[in-house]
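Task: complex structure prediction.
Instruction: return structure tokens for all chains below.
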Amino acid sequence: MFASILDIIIDGLFMGGIYALLAMGLSLQYGVARVLNVSHGEFIMVGAFLTLALHTGLGMNPILTLVIIGPIIFIVGYLLHRTLFSALLKSSPSTEVFEGKSLLATFGLLFIIQNVAVLIWGSATRSYSYLASPVEIAGAITSLNRMVTLGITIAIGLAFYIFLARSRMGKAIRAAAQDPATAGIMGVNINNVLALCFGFGLLMAGIAGVLYSMCFGFYTTMGLGFTIIAIIVVVLGGLGSIPGSFIGGFILGIVGQITNTFEAELTLAAYYFIFIVLLLVRPKGIMGK
Amino acid sequence: MQYLLTSICSLCMVYSGWFIDRLLGKEKRGKWLTSGVLLLTLALVATLPVYGTSYAPILMTTIILYIILAVSWTMFSGPTGYMSLATAAFFGVGIYTAAFMAGDFPPPVFILVGGAASFILALGVGALTLRLRGIYFAIFTFGLVELIRHVLAFIELHVTGTRGRFVFGVDNETIFYYMLGVFVLLMITAYFLNRSKFGLALRSIGEYEAAAAHTGVNVTMVKIVTFAVSAFFMGAVGAIWATKLHYVDPGIAFNPLFTFIPVLMAIFGGMGLLYGPIIGAAFFTLLKEFLTTTLAKYGLGELYMLFFGVILVAAILFMPNGVVGVIQRLTQKWRKGGPVEEHADT
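Output:
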């Protein structure tokens, strides 16, 4: 009994870590750049498939692929904002109009990315095996790759938290999140900061994809489900809060594992239930201000 | 051949939208002429099964379906600026209502009940959520589609022990006429909605919600009722569509594409005037038909969404007010009258 509860908690924390990474990324994109990126989950899929290609094609260590895939996805995100979203920002009279337009534009991106991926990688579920050896923690059995994943997600969360809190660029990002116009007047290169945030956001999704692919099978149309989870976690934890993303991610991960053990088909329904109750009771989230 | 016929019929639908826009615009000149043309165009569409190929009414049914979805989506989301992503939920409720009732009841009954079921669902959802800020509303309504789908799939599997259900079919011609009937009803509703005080209140909410509330508009009530009326039409066409599907399961009935595609059509066509979403819906349905049949030859039938995605991004970037915006700019340039004034907003 105790072991199975621990099982649920460990697996929940591990899934929660991946959700937290995704949510941090979305929080940056929506909290700072004001783009509710519906195509966010597509980049977890792209990350997973690129890892597969590098791992099986070139025999690279999946963790090392982060060094290649991370920058690629970051640059894609940066350029996307510099071209598409900054053009939309320029043509929108108000933030609300921009939010609406950019939401629709990311729907377009979603269709494009998903269909190109289907074209390249097909629609079958793919997987590979890496560090799949079992690990025992106080009677609960999990696998090594899950532990590694949990460690990496927490490390990245901490690193990014320190980056935001201590570095000059982090300060600029926080300023842009509060008031982009004033931040611009104070000498922050606002277009650059917004594009960086969008890039960082996609980078988080890409990293989550690499880590996810080490533990689970993946397929080209899985992105939207992750986007929805990321949105729920962001709302749950509070927009723009990194600790909130982790708390929200862990809560969702553990709830997911609990429903998964009892009634696997109701996992998503449970997520939505939490989400709906939350929106009605506390729309600003647990750590929201 | 079927493309030519259905394109002409689609133009007739666009014309009827334009006619109502013109009526609402208090344009008095040529009233008899345009009304006459309207009757003629409607007659042309209604007699399509007589002179068209047997496939033409089927394709036209799909076009009208998307026209109704896009127009009823715009009815609420256009003036208020609240982005509803629940179209598939209301559509699916209609489909499932028909799945339960078709066979035992005549079509008008289950079409009305399907619409009414969506209407009631929308009243509930609206009362719960229309106080939420814009983007949360979008997320919530999108979540609703997935929630219903998963719960229904669970009930199908564990309570009734089924995977989906068969729907008592109705012949294609009858489906076509019911669809056309709902379209006419929608146009009449849109006309009276826009002309009434209620429509004015709705537009003022879109302009400045706080100001509307201060001038005595019951903001929440107006939003909820409009949301529910638009849901009625989505549910009604869902019920009709179900008889064409023959078999439905939660995945078919609550397919999120039925949310995305009408939004895409409305954005592309332009949301400021009634004929905008009609243009968008007709264009994309015909394009989808063309692409799926062409791409299917290479085994790439589902890739039409790739093209839709590209067009969507391009439309948002280069035609912020849709086809309607472009048409308005061209006609104003042609008349050379005054500064360019556009009705549409995102």
